[in-house]
Structure formats: C-alpha cells, structure tokens
Amino acid sequence: MPKTNPIGSILSNKDRGYIFSFGGKMHGGWKKTPKEAKAVQKAFLEARTKSGAHSFDIYANDLIRAATDAYKLLKASGIDDPKEIVQAVENHIKIAPKGDSGMTIGEAFEKVKGWPQFDKLSDKRKHESYLKTFVEELSDGWDTPLKEITLQDFLAVRDGSCRDVSYSKAQKFQTYVSGMFRKYFRDQLGILSTTVFDGSIPAIAGEKGKTERKEIYSPQETRRLLAQSLKIEKSTVWHPLYSICFSIKAFTGMHDTELSELTFGMFGYDGEILFDNPDPYRLFLPPEIMKDREHHSYSMPTILRVLLFSSPWFMKHFEAIDFDDYIEYDQIDRAEVFLGSLGMQLGEGNSDCILPAGFRGIRVKKKFMNKKLLPFATRVISDSIKKWADKARGVQWKTNTYRHTFISYAYQALCGGDIKKLQQAVGHSEGTTVTARHYLNSVPVDHGKDYFDHRNLSKAFMKEWSSRDKDDVNTKAFGESRGTLDQVRRVKRIAEDPEDKIFDM
Q1: CA 121, CA 71: separation in Å to the nearest integer?
Q2: In which band, very low, low, confident or very high, does the pLDDT at 463 lie, cut at 50, 70 and 90?
Q3: Are residues 269 and 165 in the same domain?
C-alpha cells in the first residue's frame, strides 16, 4: 500500500496552474499561483486535524477490512444488518477471558507475538528480551500461570540482577515488563482484567528519580570522527555511505532502528525537495518504522544539507525538477544562493555537483524511491565509529551516544531552549521527563553553535568529501564494480598520510 504524504502535495501543470492533492485526490480546484493552492492545503489540514481524521488514517484500511470480514460472517449466518457487528463485539467482551483462564505467561506471550500490531513494533525484540529476563527467574519459567505472578516476583528481579548492572537497566526492565502486562495482556488482548502493576510501584533502590546520562562527543571530536571516516582500513576501499549514515546520526539524532529502515524516498515530501516550499529540508518517516507508531519528520540542519548535497554519491540518486512558467525568477536566485553555500552551481557540466539551470528542486529517481539507504545492519556503522575513534587523534570512544549528543547541542542551538520544540524534533512525547532526565546534558550555548556550524568543515575536508563517488566502493559489501587500481592506491595514500590536513578541522 502506497504511503500517504501526511501534508499532501502541491501539483503543477503548465497549462492549468496549481492544485492541492491529498491521498490521490484533488482538492479546491486549479489555482493560478502556488500561494492560492497552499491556502487550500492549509485549510484542508486544519479541518482534518480538528475532525480527528488524521488519527484514523493509520488504521483505516485494517478497520475496513476487519469490519467487512465480520459483516460477511454475520451475513452467512442469516444476519443482514451491519449494526449487528457492534452488538457482536459487545457480546464477545462479556464472555472473553479476563485472567481466570489459567493461561501461562508463555501462552499469553505467544498470543502477543501473533498479534500483527506487535509484530510491526520497531522495539519488539526489547519487549521479548526483558520479559525473558523476568521469566527466567520464575520457578516455573514460561509455564507460570499469569494469575500466580506477584509484584514481589517482579521487584526481586528489578532490584536484584537488573539493578546490579545499572539504574538505567532496572528502569528499562520495569518499562518493558510492566508495559507487556498492562498494554498487551490487559488492554489489547483482554487476557487480564487487572495486573500487578496497576497500583503504585516502589521506587528503584538507590538513585531515586535519576538516570545515568551518557557522555557525549564534543564538536571537535565529531568533526575528527567525520574526517576519520574518509580514512577507512588500508585494505578496504572507502565508500561514501559510511560517512553519510554517520552524518545523519550525528545531525538528526535518529534512532539506529529508524536509520536501518530509511529509504531515499523519505528525503523531502514524497522524495521531493522543492527549494521554494516552506521548510522543505526534512526526512519524513512513516509510522510503521517509528517506536510510537506515529508519523514523524526529522529536520535536516544546514550542516547536514551541506554534507548530503555536496556528496556526488548521494546526489546520483536524485534528479533536477525543472521550473514551470508560473515560477518567478527570484526563486532561481534563491536556488543559486543555496547551491553556492554548498560549493555547487547552476549550469551545464560533467560534474554531478552541477545541476541544470532553471531548476526548482530535486527529486529521488523512481528506481531509488524504495531503496534502503543502509543495505546492512546499523551495527556496522556503530562498529565503524569505534574504529574511527581508536584511530583519530584526541578522540575517546564513548559508545554509540549520538542521539544524546544531538539532543544536548540542539536544545539551545536549534530549539532556542524550548523543551517542547526539542521533543517534537526528536520524536519524544510532549511533556515526558525522559528527554531532560536521560538525554539532555548541560553544555555551553556556544558549543551547540559550534557543533552545527557548517563553516567549521575545513576546505581540505570538503574537497576530499566531494571527490568521492560510487566507484570507490567495497565490492563485498555493495556488489558493485571495484574502483580502478589507481583509485585504490589513492585511498591508501590518504589513509597513510599522517599530515593530511583534513585533521585540521
């Protein structure tokens, strides 16, 4: 099923003008100017939000199919009134098991795993892992009846083996195990009517109200890691993808699970980045790859745009969008200014960093729309960062903490000290204490500005960065043709040169 752009699109036709489209349907009729079409878009989205229709979209097809199947069953039994579906559900609720069926925790979890919505969760493995940790401490293991499990059973594990590891481990254990009981055993499947977690849960022993914040990387360390990404193992031909993925992690705060599902079509609105649109530089992630099953978009700050749009390898996946007759010439000037900041230009040429004059924006080529950016596990990127840290001068490995790093610097530099804007930017629920307690480190304001300032990328680094294309690849990892012997030697020379000026960043 094709994904619906959460805000729709403005379509243009040289002869007819502009029109707002949502979900494959046209709204408001053709308009003479983009401004008029955008006014239709704004009114439509405001009305949708007020009616609550946006929350229905995610489940609409599943609901329609389920209701249709239910009606077919009723009709086959001689009942030809669709309203009887509601009565049938009410009757089912009355007789459904409410925790008195003698079901074991193993049987209950098998039901959860068979539920389609659970199977789509990005963190389903964490649910299973923490539940397994709990079950292994029960005397009867997976054969323990649900109704015999007590809060003391849970606390013994949380405050014992989990707390011995760390306060954070105990917290996560509580979150996932209690969530399994309340959200799935009770609310979603009705296996339990009440759970041992419904009342107050004693605080975790020790550091009450605290979590252990992870150490973050400094702006200078981040630039040195980025530089080191251009100097991969001497025996391996460098591929731009490693640095591209690291850049996205460092300058969006994206989860690894989200990065692993990222496709080229998620860059911009439906794979289109139109320079004249308000806030066009975003990554739109569909609900099925998000932890909370909600639509989310990550902004692409200037430094990330500079890195992505000056990469020949990245730009090979895009094509120019031409201006039509209704686009005013001052927008061409804006495009020229934009490209100039990236060291790119309008006009004809052989370079992949030169786009045709008179273009309105860029779009993902059709053959790459559904192609994943990352053809392997995100663990490869994390392991690479560790290797870079070991080799880079003056950088200490601090584990994979770039979501914490981004949030700490973005709080002041990008969000102006507004915690609500920060939570919206990284996909946290508004009002949650997790952002401030777990992710947000106190850093000087000027450090945040330094972190996101693209002017701190040295000329030597940008020259090397923009020289790499799809021919410099690792054959085993990507299945593409290996670069020439000269290219391999060039990469080796870069890796062997201790005086390389990209480290001056």
Answers
A1: 29
A2: confident
A3: no
Q: Is there a single domain that holds both residue 243 and residue 349?
A: yes
pLDDT, position 73 = 78
Domain of residue 80, residue span: 60-95
Rounded Cα distance, 16 and 32, in Å: 8
Q: Where are the beta strands (DSSP E) in 176-305?
A: 272-274, 282-285, 296-299
- Other residues' Cβ atoms within 10 Å of the Cβ of residue 14: 8
Residue 336 — very low, low, confident or very high, per pLDDT cuts 50/70/90? low
Nearest CA among 418, 419, 405, 420 for reference residue 452? 405
- Does 373 lie in the same domain as 316? yes
Question: Alpha-carbon distance 493 to 497, whole Å?
Answer: 6
Counting the structural domains of the chain, the total is 4
Reply yes or no on whether the pLDDT at 32 is more than 90: no
With H, G, I as helix, E, B as strand and everything else as coil, classify residue 355.
Answer: strand
Its pTM surpasses 0.85: no
**Confidence category of residue 91, pLDDT binned at 50, 70, 90:** low
350 and 482 together in one domain: yes
Residues 39, 89, single domain; the answer is no
Last residue of a domain, one of 95, 116, 142: 95
